[in-house]
Specification:
heterotrimer; A alpha/beta (294); B mainly alpha (433); C mainly alpha (460); A: 294 residues; alpha/beta; Rossmann fold; 4-stranded antiparallel β-sheet; 11 helices; 35% helix; globular; disordered N terminus; C: 460 residues; mainly alpha; MetI-like fold; two-stranded antiparallel sheet; 2 strands; binds adenosine-5'-triphosphate; binds magnesium ion
Chain lengths: 294, 433, 460
């Protein structure tokens, strides 16, 4: 188990599972200013979220969430439908900006830079925090142009050869190259669902981000395509920080090192994936993973 | 590998930062173009309105000239005469001329006299006739009467005639100027509210022309159009939405309706010409035929709007009604139609507004005749407002320009009120299921 | 007037019939509604329908054929030499007779025969009116009585009424088809007659248009030339100018409204722009002729260009203004139909708004936009009043927007407005032009609607 020290030097003592009594939970609440149980902090965080609240107009969707996202790790977010997983995920690259009524308070830092700082530009932020969505959403362009879109708008390639290389390496890393290399000029919308999702992943990594956010990337896919994507996530973990929202606990267990459980907009519990699934500390988490609701 | 990617990422960030300024400049430019397009559109709207209003507001006033008329029994009829037959045939024109001659005794040549008489409108004699016929006791008395001035004088008083232009190119000559100035000096010239414009039919003389005939014609035309297109449109929508089986025939009807909605209006005019006028021999230029043609034209609009209204009624209502044993027809008439009615009415009003402004098809069925009389029903020859506008716009007299603009203002006022009514109706009955 | 009275009387009869039918049905069962097959009001409606519908049908038929029959009878009574005149001359004579009967001015000196014919004409009309009144009312009364007599407690009044309503519904919805057929037939027949006089090839490929045909057979000179190319070219030129104005402005304002504008701005600017769509075309025509055309001419003069006062430019620009809201509302629909996921995908990669719009949204919306533009083109081609008032009459074959050109619709109007003889090549030419106009706009609409529908389906 890692030593848990956050910037302000407060040590969040790993709770002993056996000792996870009501009193401890209360203590944990006091400690973090929220009801979260478990290891919020990690040693080497890529992103840190402090007291994050999100509102849609009057309605609050996220309540006081504190969470670190570790470097080169996969963190999965689980929870019943409507609990705010997507909302939280979209905070991490400010995709919520595109929703008029949405308002975010609190602090989210990436490598010591507050991403909600007034002076911060979302363009470079989103270039380094890429996103893959629930439904594959290839642009109505050719496969090549889909991948080349990001590098083109950001001006990443020096020349056509270089662009070709970027496209090829992205597709290769997304495990799609072999399947599409002969039909690069056909529309991306003509691929199968699983291929489209991998295309979207390739599109995201084509701008070489540091963090990739994935919102239920496999929910529209069959088991075989899902397995491919999971394999892909596992490979990508070496180089990228990945946050993934999923409804499948098996999937969370398979691909992630840490797991966060959300409930009604609150982060209930976060910890090592193994621990969460074998030995949840919070009653709600336990209920959820044992299938009592959700 | 890891290192390599980190380098790549760092390179990306450098590149992104480098491009930012240029990209935000592009962004700003694009946004400005968009805003510019809207502003341009708004400018067009305001320019159009300003141009029409600036040209037209003066038409709501008319210049009048005060004449001291001696209702000479010699020129009219003996004092005490009351027979309308006699009174209506009297020489009122002579009366006006005599008064003018008395006011300007120095005018002697025939030519000049003729010009002098032209200062007041030919309508002056009709006005005197009407006065005498209403009150025969006027005969033998002397009265100050305000009569409409000729349109050229009217234009001069309203400042539409440029006096710096050489005399030969001017509608008002120098001698007329002198007379007018002397009239003005005696306070005999005045601008008053132009009631004629709202109470008269068309006329060759701008100062005697009005829009009443056209407004009535438009009203009858719209009534006919409404009487046909509303029931038929609603019936068609009900059938297509509620009863029609999904087969080829209904498909054809659908395609047809959508296409008819986009057929140029002038083609409907040709249909009217060929069918109603040439085949059935209905008279030209009557609201009946105009209304029929416009009904065919607005039908698609009404059908499409009514279908949308029917679609928005939730199926649960139908199921509830059918569930308590109502026949499909009863379900529709008792439950669905009342709920869909506001939407249908909104569509119908919009269709009627379209019909009210439509001109081209009416030209085809001969509604361009010059008609002075105010129509009393849909079988009388008449003009309609937009056609009246077209006819006046074609007239060379300067005074018709302002009247055209004024007629447009009236037409737009009608249209705007109709559209506001539609908006209000929609707001009022808007329902969220 | 007479006819209106008749209609009102008929409506009165129908109301009466309704109450009589209702009452009789109630009397039959002495008020016990349950013993009746249908509700009493259905018996009422049934009776009212029997009373009103046959009479109304008779009325409509009568009005429709009265003119033709009366004219025929008048012609039969005319002297032999007039009867044997060629049809278009005979038409002129008949017009005079009609005008004479109505007390209007006529085009030639009135002689005995004419006056006689006119008197005959008006007396026939009077008789016909009287007869209609009597016959229609008798039919109404007989129908009503028949229906009222036939009421019995087992009569399926509701089913019959519903059947009648159903018939009305079906025929109403078929009216659209009959309208289309009517348009096609009326335009086609006259066009065929036109093409019997003028070869199709001359019409479609001829470079000169000058329809002034000789009015009398012995008149020399000016026989019509019907080459429609200058008209097509003029229409095309003006449409092109209109599109140059409408498409960029309409599209950009739709984009701004959909992607940039705040709620308040949109709530304000959108209705104002839509005002442009509600303004009648005759108003645009007046605006073009009075304000825009002189403005362009003066501007041209100050630049040392000669701009015609009926320049294609003025008509085209004003037509473009008219079409702006059309393009913008269609584009607005289409842009809003692009799924949010598409925008998210682009924003998620760090694209700016304008990059997203230009490189993702517009390509995604392109088919819909193209469909909308095609509809706008068809609008522009068929637009009449603006060009009638602001474009010229002379058929110039030119691509210079500063010169005057004429269009298909302008020619249709000039050929058909005013006194016309119905068989001359001149009037028939208008129908041939209308056939071209109808075919082209129909084809454009079909293609456009098809594209737009396909586009919608794609994102549903
Ligand atoms: N655009 C929006 N406007 C208003 N409320 C929203 C919006 N998006 C989400 N919400 C609300 O915020 C809450 C959290 O939604 P969110 O989409 O984050 O849930 P989720 O955990 O992703 O659910 P799911 O598993 O179904 O995707 C929900 O109650 C939802 O109704
Ligand atoms: Mg979600």
């Amino acid at each position: 188990m890692e030593e848990l020290v956050n910037e302000s030097g407060v040590v969040a003592k790993p709770l002993n599972p056996e000792a996870a009594t009501e009193v401890d939970m209360q203590a944990s609440y006091e400690q973090h200013g929220s009801g979260t149980v478990g290891e919020i902090y990690v040693n080497d965080p890529r992103m840190t979220c402090r007291n994050v609240n999100v509102y849609y107009g009057e309605k609050q969707a996220i309540f006081d969430v504190n969470l670190d996202i570790g470097k080169n790790q996969v963190i999965s977010m689980i929870g019943p439908s409507g609990c705010g997983k997507s909302t939280f995920l979209r905070c991490l690259n400010r995709m919520n900006d595109t929703i008029d009524v949405c308002r975010v308070t609190g602090q989210i830092k990436m490598d010591d830079q507050d991403i909600y700082d007034d002076g911060l530009d979302v363009v470079p932020l989103r270039a380094s925090v890429g996103m893959v969505f629930q439904k594959p959403n290839p642009f109505p362009k050719s496969i090549y142009d889909n991948i080349a879109y990001g590098p083109r708008i950001h001006g990443l390639s020096d020349n056509a050869r270089h662009l070709d290389e970027i496209v090829e390496s992205s597709l290769t890393r997304a495990g799609l190259w072999e399947e599409v290399k002969d039909r690069m000029d056909q529309p991306g919308t003509g691929l199968s669902g699983g291929q489209q999702q991998r295309l979207c992943i390739a599109r995201a990594i084509a701008v070489s981000p540091e963090v990739i956010l994935m919102d239920e990337p496999c929910s529209a896919l069959d088991p075989i395509a899902t397995a491919k994507i999971e394999e892909l996530i596992d490979e990508l973990r070496e180089n990228y920080t990945i946050a993934i929202v999923t409804h499948s606990m098996q999937q969370a267990a398979r691909v992630s090192q840490r797991t966060a459980y959300f409930h009604l907009g609150k982060l209930i519990e976060v910890g090592e994936t193994d621990q969460i699934f074998t030995n949840p500390r919070h009653k709600l988490t336990e209920d959820y993973i044992t299938g009592r609701f959700g | 590998m890891n290192n390599n990617l980190q380098q790549q990422h760092d390179r990306t960030m450098v590149r992104v930062q480098q491009g930012l300024v240029r990209r935000y400049r592009q962004e700003k430019r694009f946004q400005r173009i968009g805003l510019g397009a809207i502003v341009l559109g708004l400018v067009f709207v305001s320019f159009l309105f300003i141009s029409i209003i600036a040209n037209g507001y003066t038409a709501f006033q008319q210049t009048y000239v005060k004449l001291d008329i001696n209702f000479d029994p010699e020129l009219i009829a003996p004092v005490g005469e009351t027979d309308p037959e006699v009174l209506s045939k009297a020489n009122y024109g002579g009366l006006v001329k005599k008064t003018m001659r008395e006011m300007f005794p120095d005018v002697s040549s025939r030519r000049e006299k003729k010009v002098l008489y032209g200062l007041v409108s030919t309508g002056a004699s009709y006005q005197l006739r009407d006065m005498v016929m209403q009150d025969p006791a006027l005969i033998g008395t002397r009265q100050s009467v305000w009569v409409p001035a000729d349109d050229d004088v009217d234009m001069l008083i309203k400042g539409h005639i440029d006096l710096n232009v050489p005399e030969s190119d001017r509608r008002i000559k120098n001698n007329q100027m002198v007379w007018i100035q002397s009239l003005q000096a005696e306070d005999r010239i005045e601008k008053r509210f132009n009631t004629t414009f709202f109470t008269a039919g068309d006329s060759r003389e701008p100062e005697l022309s009005g829009i009443k005939g056209a407004v009535h014609g438009s009203f009858f035309t719209l009534m006919i159009c409404l009487l046909i297109s509303f029931p038929v449109g609603v019936a068609a929508a009900v059938y297509l939405e509620e009863f029609a089986p999904k087969n080829r025939w209904t498909d054809i009807i659908e395609v047809n309706i959508n296409n008819l909605a986009a057929v140029p209006s002038i083609v409907f005019g040709l249909l009217g010409l060929a069918v109603f006028i040439n085949f059935f021999g209905l008279p030209r230029s009557v609201p009946l035929v105009g209304g029929l043609v416009l009904a065919l034209m607005t039908l698609p609009t009404i059908i499409i709007a009514s279908r949308a209204a029917l679609k928005s009624v939730p199926p649960s209502i139908r199921e509830a009604a059918l569930g308590v044993g109502a026949s499909p027809m009863q379900t529709i008439t008792h439950h669905v139609l009342p709920l869909a009615m506001p939407g249908m009415l909104t569509g119908t009003i919009i269709g009627m507004a379209q019909a009210l402004g439509e001109t081209a098809p009416l030209l085809m069925i001969g509604m361009v005749a010059f008609i002075v009389d105010i129509p009393g029903g849909p079988f009388d020859p008449s003009a309609v407002l937009p056609v009246q506008i077209y006819l006046w716009a074609d007239s060379p007299e300067r005074a018709f320009v302002e009247r055209t603009s004024a007629a447009i203002m009236v037409l737009l006022a009608f249209l705007i009120s109709m559209n506001l009514l539609a908006v209000w109706l929609r707001k009022k009955f808007e329902r969220r299921w | 007037m007479h006819s209106s009275t008749l209609i009102i009387v008929l409506l009165g009869f129908m109301t009466l019939a309704y109450y009589m039918g209702r009452k009789r049905s109630l009397n039959l069962v002495s008020g016990r509604v349950r013993d009746l097959h249908s509700l009493p009001s259905y018996y009422g409606i049934h009776t009212a329908l029997w009373c009103g519908v046959p009479a109304l049908i008779l009325f409509v038929l009568w009005i429709s054929f009265e003119g033709a029959v009366v004219t025929g009878m008048v012609v039969d009574n005319l002297p032999q030499e007039i009867q044997e005149l060629p049809p278009e001359r005979l038409n002129l004579v008949l017009n005079d007779i009609r005008n004479l009967a109505q007390g209007d001015i006529v085009s030639q000196a009135v002689d005995e025969t004419m006056q006689g014919a006119a008197d005959h004409y008006s007396s026939l009309l009077r008789i016909s009116d009287m007869a209609l009144f009597v016959v229609a009312l008798s039919v109404a009364i007989l129908g009503g009585l028949f229906a009222q007599r036939s009421i019995n407690r087992h009569q399926r009044a509701r089913n019959r009424v519903e059947k009648a309503i159903n018939f009305f519904l079906v025929s109403s919805s078929s009216l659209a088809i009959f309208t289309t057929i009517g348009i096609v037939l009326s335009v086609l027949f006259e066009s065929i007659r036109f093409f019997q006089q003028i070869p199709v090839t001359e019409f479609i490929f001829g470079l000169e248009w000058s329809p002034q045909t000789a009015i009398r057979a012995d008149q020399v000179g000016s026989s019509g030339v019907f080459g429609a190319i200058p008209l097509f070219a003029g229409t095309f030129l003006i449409t092109l100018i209109a599109m140059f104005v409408a498409v960029p402005i309409g599209l950009m304002s739709a984009i701004y409204m959909a992607e940039y504008a705040g709620k308040r701005f949109r709530a304000l600017a959108k209705p104002v722009l839509e005002v442009l769509a509600g303004i009648p075309t005759v108003v645009y025509g007046f605006f073009a002729a009075l304000t825009v055309a002189p403005f362009f001419r003066d501007m041209g003069t100050s630049l040392g260009l000669s701009v015609s006062s009926e320049s294609a430019l003025a008509a085209g620009v004003v037509m473009g203004i008219m079409i702006i809201p059309f393009v913008s509302s269609l584009s607005d629909d289409v842009i809003n139909a692009v799924p949010q996921a598409m925008r998210d995908g682009s924003y998620g990669l760090g694209a700016t708004r304008s990059e997203t719009i230009r490189q993702v949204i517009i390509p995604a919306a392109l088919p819909g936009i193209v469909g909308g533009v095609l509809l706008a083109v068809s609008r522009a081609i068929g637009e009449t009043m603006i060009v009638v008032m602001a474009a010229g009459l002379s058929a110039n074959l030119t691509a210079n927007p500063l010169e005057a050109v004429t269009t298909v619709t302008v020619q249709i109007v000039t050929l058909l407005v005013g006194d016309q003889e119905f068989d001359s090549a001149k009037t028939l030419a208008a129908f041939a032009l209308a056939l071209v106009l109808f075919t082209i706009t129909l084809a454009l609409n079909m293609i456009a609607l098809h594209i737009v529908r396909k586009y919608r389906e794609q994102y549903e």
